[in-house]
Design goal:
Layout lengths: L12 H10 L5 H9 L22 H13 L4 H10 L1 H7 L12 H11 L5 H12 L8 E10 L7 H19 L1 H7 L2 H8 L12 H22 L12 H13 E5 L5 E5 L23 E5 L3 E13 L12 H8 L6 E8 L5 H13 L6 E3 L7 H9 L3 E3 L8 H5 L9 E3 L4 E3 L8 E7 L2 E7 L2 H5 L4 H4 L8 E4 L2 H13 L3 H7 L4 H13 L9 H25 L10 H10 L1
Parallel strand pairs: 1-7, 7-8
Antiparallel strand pairs: 1-5, 2-3, 4-5, 5-6, 9-10, 11-12, 12-13
């Protein structure tokens, strides 16, 4: 398939007349074409297409179809049908009224090409560039970030189902890729009887003994198949099949192979206490989505999938500039729309604090570093707060309080009760004793200082129970380096004031953005499998949300959808 960059074709005259007559108040698709048509060009996608072969559909047009698809939460078939029967979509795409459109299979192939060439965020970035040029968003303002869970597009499997389904997926892939080799390597009728239908709990044995026996059979079959694939006589390319490699990983993570006292090989399921199991961020959960991970938040939320972080502007004050026309002056008087400035998708097991630096770096690379960045308590650390401040960004976020036993009891001596002399490298306790040890160390890849008091001082201290219960008998403190310790202490002091709490209330608005993304694009449920494709989904979801918000800004309509309650409509308007 080749590409001849053209961009969106001009709208045919007949399509213009009919669309204007059918939509006297216009529609989202019509306004997007009129105001944002220059965003959807072909040039940014040139590297993903060749210069030889039959010309394909315009990637600029397909990207516009995808944005409209997400804005209306449509399936591929529905989006392809809209390009045929919806007059406003024909106007947006520049099609004749008699145009027969395209097959729905074009859209997944287009997405696969974007993912394969690392172009998941091209449309999102181009729309943001347009908004920057239009003065709708700028660097140095206020932005806020929050995350939410994303449920994967595969079914939940327990360990027994995962073991059996991984063998089944590998057999399906080998049956299609190397049927003759598979027929020689295994007993196909036996395996077809066991792995023909999908492995399902409703069809598995009810008793624990029989389920344990079946689990052992799954492990033996996986081991037999792995040995066949990795034998010297097998084609080397078989080992590169994704489903085969996943089966091998599931085998290693789920089973152990031992030799009994009689010399017999025994395959048995791993027990967490005896054999150990992989950590959550490495443990596979499905043979059909190797990136999906089990995760938990609090005591009530457990999910298999991913996590998405949304960052939006939240400064409604327009930049100081004289309007060239009365209409622009009126638009500025209404304030600027809140636009999503970054979307980051990670594995579900990645903590929020690990996403802070990448998000701020992406904002800086896009030329949109905020002056104030509002986040919840999961995002900051002393190092991140200080690093952001050095770049001109103030992180408005509650830092975690001292979680030591002394601080929790509210009766003991926490770190704030000790006086630190950084120059003398000594610490004085509330009873006047001076530390005897000052040890710079590395803990969890961070610089730290361990301070130790003498056992003779601590054991004779009358308030020792309020200070330490350590068996070693003396108090020890772990401190950040001076600049980080000072910054952290100042942040903890500031966040207790009413002024800071009133200021931090601005962060709560991002919850409405997540709710809007859920209502419009279904962002909490993955449409596709694999982290790269889920990232593409979220990039287009964020683009669709920005388009909807821009449309609300243009038309002065509240941010809502049809058939919503007054309360929901008010929530969307406040979010805008």
């Amino acid at each position: 398939m080749s590409l001849r960059p053209m961009g969106l074709p001009p709208v045919p005259e007949q399509t213009v007349r009919v669309a204007r007559a059918a939509f006297p108040q216009e529609s989202l698709a019509i306004r997007v074409r009129d105001r944002l048509g220059e965003v959807f060009t072909d040039e940014p996608f040139a590297e993903a297409f060749g210069v030889r072969g039959a010309p394909g559909l315009s990637p600029g047009m397909l990207s516009l179809v995808t944005v409209l698809q997400f804005a209306e939460n449509l399936t591929d078939r529905q989006a392809a049908a809209m390009a045929i029967r919806a007059i406003d979509w024909k106007y947006a795409l520049g099609l004749e009224l008699t145009d027969t459109g395209f097959d729905h299979s074009v859209l997944p192939r287009f997405r696969a090409r974007l993912v394969g060439n690392g172009m998941e965020r091209v449309v999102f970035d181009r729309l943001l560039e347009h908004c920057v040029d239009a003065g709708l968003v700028a660097a140095g303002g206020k932005q806020r970030t929050d995350s939410t869970h994303v449920v994967s597009a595969v079914r939940d499997l327990n360990r027994l189902e995962l073991a059996g389904e991984s063998v089944r997926a590998a057999l399906e892939a080998l049956s299609a890729a190397a049927p003759d080799w598979l027929a020689r390597a295994v007993d196909v009728p036996e395996f077809a009887h066991r792995y023909g239908p999908r492995v399902d709990s409703w069809k598995l044995p009810g008793s624990k003994v029989k389920r344990d026996q079946l689990s052992q059979v799954y492990g033996q079959d996986a081991l037999r198949l792995c040995r066949a694939v990795w034998s010297p006589d097998a084609p080397a390319w078989l080992r590169e099949i994704g489903a085969v490699d996943i089966m091998r990983q599931v085998l290693v993570q789920t089973y152990t192979v031992r030799t009994s006292s009689r010399g017999k090989e025994v395959v048995s399921k791993r027990e967490a206490d005896e054999d150990g199991v992989p950590p959550g961020h490495l443990r596979l959960a499905s043979p059909y989505d190797p990136d999906a991970r089990w995760s938990a938040k609090g005591d009530d939320l457990f999910w298999l999938g991913y996590k998405v972080h949304l960052t939006e502007s939240c400064d409604n004050t327009p930049p100081e500039a004289e309007a060239e026309a009365e209409a622009e002056a009126e638009a500025e008087a209404r304030g600027l729309p809140k636009l999503i400035t970054d979307v980051t998708t990670t594995l579900s097991t990645v903590p929020d604090v690990k996403a802070t630096a990448p998000i701020q770096q992406q904002l800086a690379d896009r030329g949109l570093p905020p002056a104030e960045h509002y986040l919840d308590s999961g995002y900051p650390s002393a190092e991140l707060i200080e690093a952001a401040r050095s770049r001109g960004t103030v992180m408005v976020t509650p830092v975690l309080l001292d979680r030591s036993a002394q601080a929790k009891s509210h009766t003991g001596y926490d770190k704030s009760a000790f006086r630190i002399d950084w120059k003398a490298r000594q610490v004085r306790c509330p009873q006047g004793n001076t530390s005897t040890g000052w040890h710079p160390v590395r803990q969890r890849e961070r610089d730290a200082i361990v301070v130790e008091f003498a056992k003779t001082d601590c054991q004779a201290c009358p308030v020792r129970p309020e200070c330490t219960s350590a068996r070693r008998g003396n108090r020890m403190l772990t401190l950040y380096p001076e600049h980080l310790h000072t910054a952290l202490a100042a942040a903890r002091t500031e966040q207790k004031t009413k002024t800071w709490k009133d200021k931090y209330a601005l962060r709560a608005g991002v919850e409405g953005t997540i709710n809007q993304a859920l209502d419009i694009t279904g962002i909490r449920r993955a449409r596709y499998r694999g982290l790269p494709k889920v990232r593409l989904q979220h990039a287009f979801s964020a683009t669709a949300i920005n388009v909807v918000r821009l449309d609300a800004h243009w038309t002065e309509h509240p941010l809502d959808r049809s058939r919503t309650s007054n309360l929901t409509r008010l929530s969307y308007r406040l979010t805008a």
